[in-house]
Amino acid sequence: MAIMQGAQLFRDTNGEVAQLHGIGVQRFGDRWYAYGEIKNNGNLFQGVACYSTTDFVTWRNEGTVLEVGEDGSITGPERIIERPKVMRCPQTGKYVMYLHVDGKGDYAYAHIGTAISDAPTGPFEFLNTMQFRGYESRDIGVFQDEDGVGYILSEDRPHGTHIYRLSDDYLSIVEDVICLRGTNYWAGYESPILIKKDGVYYWFGSCLTGWDCNDNMFATATDLHGPWSDFTPFTPEGSHTYQSQCDIIVPLDGADQWHAGRFLYIGDRWNPDDLGNSPLVTLPIDIDDRRAVLQWRDSWDNTL
Ligand code: DGJ
């Protein structure tokens, strides 16, 4: 049995709250590796934590895989750095971490950061920050397609949310595949997620309401360039996504990650006064035939 709560704190095998805020998850081999913002002490950068699991119930603490840089550096302790996401580059075999790197206690810098490692558990070496054609980049997400091509999603307030195609080594951006504002919404969606099931792409995101929750949205397409459907909610309107902000949707089964039958939704239920103890909303999400539905459950069995 792998009983999960609808909302819960993940704890490691020592009983400590897993610092997996703004969580990203990838399966490498027979384990899932989760990366998150360490938020024990407010919102400034405290490093990136990694934990691994086989069932999303028992979590092995793999340590701090990207350390805080020196005072004054781009990854220093006065910076805001959020939403670590990792992919393994098929061409180089390296693990590449993407981060939302922002300013000294503010959100003025708005770049994408990259870091690299030979192993999913790090240590990751910080490389640099980038913007594509000067576009702002705050919340990010990542996606690897069936052909091995990597993509990064990036929220750019003046224009919308982009899907960028990465270079073969995953270290630079080579194409602005599409940039969309939300449906009847002034901006692109934050906390972007892209998954694929049976040839259909599903793009999820949240509205921009700071630490407050809102009705998150999704759209579908069969080509990343579009056309994309309208964005619509995947939880009952007004539920504010069961008081969560989407982080990641994890394919759990199937022949590969593009043909899964079961998916796990994970979102932050931010507690702005105590970010390090913000619970996660963890629910099965039904995805099929261009529909996505997230239903509330107090608890459920995630046995695979
Ligand atoms: C919403 C973003 O999704 C979070 O990662 C964080 O930056 C908060 N805004 C800060 O208000």
Task: Please give a structural write-up.
The structure is a single chain. The chain is mainly β. The chain has a single domain, classed as Tachylectin-2, Chain A. Helices cover 1% and strands 47% of the residues. The protein has one helix and 23 strands. The chain has one helix spanning 240-243, and strands at residues 3-5, 7-8, 21-28, 31-37, 48-53, 60-66, 79-88, 95-104, 111-117, 125-130, 140-144, 150-156, 160-166, 173-180, 190-197, 200-206, 217-221, 232-233, 245-251, 263-268, 280-288, 291-294, 299-301. Strands 2, 19, 20, 21 and 22 form a five-stranded antiparallel sheet that branches. It has a four-stranded antiparallel sheet with strand order 3-4-5-6, with no helix packed on it. A four-stranded antiparallel sheet has the order 7-8-9-10, with no helix packed on it. A hairpin with a 6-residue loop joins strand 7 and strand 8 (95-104). The longest helix has 4 residues, at 240-243. The protein is globular. The model has no long low-confidence stretch (mean pLDDT 98).
- Helical residue percent band: under 10%
What's the end-to-end separation, in Å? 9 Å
Structural class: mainly beta
Strand content: over 45%
How would you characterize the largest beta sheet? 5 strands, antiparallel
At the first level of CATH, the class is Mainly Beta
Which distinct ligands sit in these coordinates? (2R,3S,4R,5S)-2-(hydroxymethyl)piperidine-3,4,5-triol
Number of domains: 1
> Strand tally, please?
23
Regions with pLDDT < 50 over 5+ consecutive residues? none
Shape: globular
**What does the radius of gyration come to?**
17 Å
CATH fold label: Tachylectin-2, Chain A
Order of helices and strands: EEEEEEEEEEEEEEEEEEHEEEEE
Describe the oligomeric state of these chains in a short phrase. Answer: single chain
Keywords: Glycosidase, Hydrolase
GO molecular function, one term: hydrolase activity, hydrolyzing O-glycosyl compounds
Protein name: Glycosyl hydrolase family 43
Family: Belongs to the glycosyl hydrolase 43 family.
